[in-house]
Design a protein that fits this description.
- The chain has 401 residues and is of the alpha+beta class.
- The chain is built from 12 helices and 12 strands.
Length: 401
């Protein structure tokens, strides 16, 4: 899909540049001195104008995004007026002749149904109105017409018909990318819901059982553990944001480990080495805690020996390097590969494959989990978190893609 979109942009932009140059070559001849040939100047200005119109369109087709991009799109075409519509109404009208809105929408029935562009004369009783002709170019995403780009001019023009069609194709590409972004967001939200659903019921049951055991013998201890449990569940089931800070994720891990220590006592020891400068780094919500839970599960459960877990977070230039290591039972590498490939379901708790998938979705395939393990040799999980990634941003008071 991305290769097709890139190829389409490469094919469309030269046509846009040529159309822009044809429309502007007589208007600004003196300004081209020292800036290369007229075609080179037009190409640069077209690319620059297109880049300014891109960010709003990447948010989809709405009144706000149409308003922010319409003037730039009209500049690309050099027309007297331009409007963007959805299937129901004119979202924005930029330029003269806004009184033609109703007529435009009445004439869009055919193009919106067939997905084919049209050009037609406009009726107007206003003597000084310069808008006499309209060119309609549908905006389509996945073969579905979402709206139309309508360019208005004083007279019929074959060049404008072609240019409007190319600009509409470019706008459609941006809307398709916006649709892909929204699909990705919905997928991440679904993954978070899956993570929440997979929070081990055994952990919840065991935590409540431990708290209950202290109610009579040590009420103050029971109260402290109940607060730890409340803070951990509040964080795990929060509703705002797909991302969090490393500091907040480590804070949730601390609540989790407090409950685990209450159950296993001195059988569990934990060492943390955290570089303060990486604490503000953003990462996918509920990303590291499942890895610590995995370390506890394979390090303690089902064996009588003590377990040591080491958590480190280091500054690695453009990235934060997080390592979670345990000296527990480990895992057969072949089984691990099948679990990450979702060929085998994990035995309870939150699967490593879920976290691995989310990291790859956000940062790319080269930022998946790096896991070193063998049967009886413990497990070491390394996570590389870019300090900046387009699209990673924190909600509310917090601040990344």
């Amino acid at each position: 899909m991305s290769g097709f979109l890139a190829g389409l942009l490469v094919a469309v932009l030269p046509l846009l540049a040529a159309g822009f140059w044809l429309g502007r070559r007589t208007a600004r001849p003196a300004s081209l001195a020292g800036l290369g040939t007229p075609v080179e100047h037009a190409t640069f200005e077209t690319l620059h104008t297109a880049s300014l119109a891109t960010p709003p369109l990447r948010a989809g087709l709405t009144e706000e995004t149409a308003r922010k991009s319409a003037r730039k799109l009209r500049s690309l075409l050099g027309t007297d007026a331009l409007c963007l519509t959805d299937r129901e109404q004119v979202l924005v009208w930029d330029g003269v002749g806004a009184h033609h809105r109703t007529e435009i929408m009445e004439r869009l029935t055919g193009p919106l149904e067939t997905g084919r562009g049209e050009a037609f004369p406009l009726t107007c009783d206003t003597p000084d109105c310069t808008v006499r002709w309209a060119v309609v170019a549908p905006l389509t995403v996945d073969d579905r017409v979402h709206g139309a780009l309508v360019a208005c001019a004083p007279r019929e023009s074959a060049v404008l018909v072609r240019a409007a069609g190319e600009v509409a194709r470019w706008v459609s590409v941006q809307l398709e990318l916006a649709d892909l972004d929204q699909s990705r967001t919905r997928l991440i939200e679904a993954e978070i819901r899956a993570l929440r659903a997979q929070i081990s019921p055994h952990f919840i049951f065991n935590s409540l059982a431990v708290i209950a055991s202290f109610v009579r013998t040590d009420p103050e201890r029971a109260r402290e553990l109940l607060l730890e449990f409340a803070d951990f569940t509040r964080y795990s089931f929060r509703r705002h944001g797909d991302f969090t800070t490393l500091a907040d994720e480590l804070h949730a891990i601390d609540h989790y480990l407090a409950l685990v220590r209450a159950r296993f006592g001195d059988r569990l020891s934990v060492t943390l080495q955290i570089a303060p400068e990486v604490l503000p780094v953003a990462l996918p919500f509920l990303c590291l805690q499942p890895l610590v839970e995995n370390a506890v599960k394979h390090g303690l459960e089902g064996k009588a020996d003590k377990c040591h877990i080491q958590i480190t977070a280091q500054d690695a230039g453009a990235e934060a390097l997080v390592v979670i290591e345990d000296d527990g039972a480990g895992m057969d590498p072949g089984l691990l590969r099948r679990i990450l490939a979702r060929e085998v379901s994990p035995t309870g708790g939150i699967g490593l494959s879920n976290v691995d998938d989310r990291l790859r979705q956000v940062y790319g395939d080269d930022h998946g989990l790096v896991i070193e393990t063998a049967a009886g040799a413990g497990m070491k999980i390394t996570v590389r978190l870019p300090k900046y990634q387009p699209g990673v941003h924190l909600a509310g008071r917090l601040t990344p893609r």
